[in-house]
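The methods section describes the discrete structure representation at length, but only in general terms. What matters is that the chain and its backbone geometry are given together, residue for residue. For illustration, here is how one protein appears when written out as sequence plus structure tokens:
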Amino acid sequence: MRHHRLLVPGAAAACLLLAIPASAADATPGAPGIGDSYYPSYGNGGYDVSHYDLRLKYQPKTDRLEGTATIVADARQDLSRFNLDFALDVNEVLVGGKKAAFTKTGDHELEITPAAPLTADRPFTVVVRYSGTPSKVVASGFTSWLRTPDGGIAANEPESAWWWFPSNDHPLDKATYDVSVAVPDGTQAISNGTLQSTSSQLGWTRYNWRSSKPQATYLTTLAVGKFDITTDTTANGLPVINAYSKDLGDNAGAARASVERSAEIVDWESTVFGPYPFDALGGYVPNVPTGYALETQTRPFYSPKGFAKGANTSLVVHELAHQWFGDSVSLKDWRDIWVNEGFASYAQWLWSEKEGEGTAQELADYTYASYPADDPFWKVEPGNPGPENQFHDAVYDRGALALQALRNHIGDKDFFAILKGWTTENRYANASVEDFVTYAEKVSGKPLAALFDTWLFTPSKPAAAQARAAELSPAKAPVRPKSWQRIQDTHRTHGR
């Protein structure tokens, strides 16, 4: 027996509304950008990722990548649809186990509409099946995927994930990772964290890597090729894994002489910055034509050119200092790049001091004296350099100069307490330049806004009186510290 009910239009509408969960009725699309001041389209709004599980297969001969990404996230609003940042071809998307509609917008936005709206403050899972040839995919006018004679590399800043996995691509949304990569036998796959296992079947070897601490998308790396791999453990038992392409040529020896000192350098940096924040360390040097290095979490990427003039421990010091400043404590907005680069550069000054190649004070004096007042160097504000100057020398040198000015102003006791306390209080979190100023004022008990305005936010050379107030020596032409040129060469490796 069937019953029919006659409803007037108003009553029908009311019943329909009652049938829809309130969250669905109120659901709206997540923003296509996370709100970054330099890169408005990077990242996405409406959700927060907690974990990425990437299961990949890569053929070096053809640069063909196939993948299934499982993304575990929490909705931050009632979501009718949401975006992921991605540039490869997508075959299928499921949300909560159900097929979802999807479309590509722009050059790196994957717009997903789930079968039913997602409810705020509840977890959900997204599965994306995809494939493509990363080196042939151009987004924003370039590709971040680097081809090598025997494989491919994902390592770039501020973006590299688009070419190998879908993500919420901004440091504000850090997550843990499982990266599983199948490659032809005789080829290795290197990623972040610890190697959990390997297995071989039918001519393919699968490498399973795990990053158990929060990690930004641009710090997540993949390197496929034929490597010489060295392993060790630190005094505290942390696994050390370093990898070198077998065809580095004349740079091979210098690369090894530098990167193999990673454990020693981390042990020293731990005495300055506090306990090492991760459960693995190392580095890798693939045969790429690039010149830059990058602080990919637990396993920095180094271009062979970084060692063209011989061993370069200063470069390794810089990238490993980023494990605290940039990786563990990550920027909130890309304008906050100084909280990454200023501190990593100052670590090189401290290493120079330790090695007897010039004190931080001597490097500060020489930096101030080296650039005349009309040099464009002083036009860049390290505290907000603009996207076009994000990796300008001033962000590194003026950035370190600001820290020496702070050290002189508040004294060594408070200064080094700030370095350790900052990395402890903000471990695995995000912070801004303003957050650091506030923290330094709290620890030192001194007002510091004027000091930081002078050294980070003034588009001109601080006057001699301001230099003297920071205990610099503007009246004399200091002797160039022994470490100066090598540190400058290191900065050149950070141009993207």
Remarks:
- DSSP finds 13 helices and 22 strands in the chain.
- The radius of gyration is 25 Å.
- The domain at 331-494 is CATH 1.10.390.10 (Neutral Protease; domain 2).
- The first strand starts at residue 47 and ends at 59.
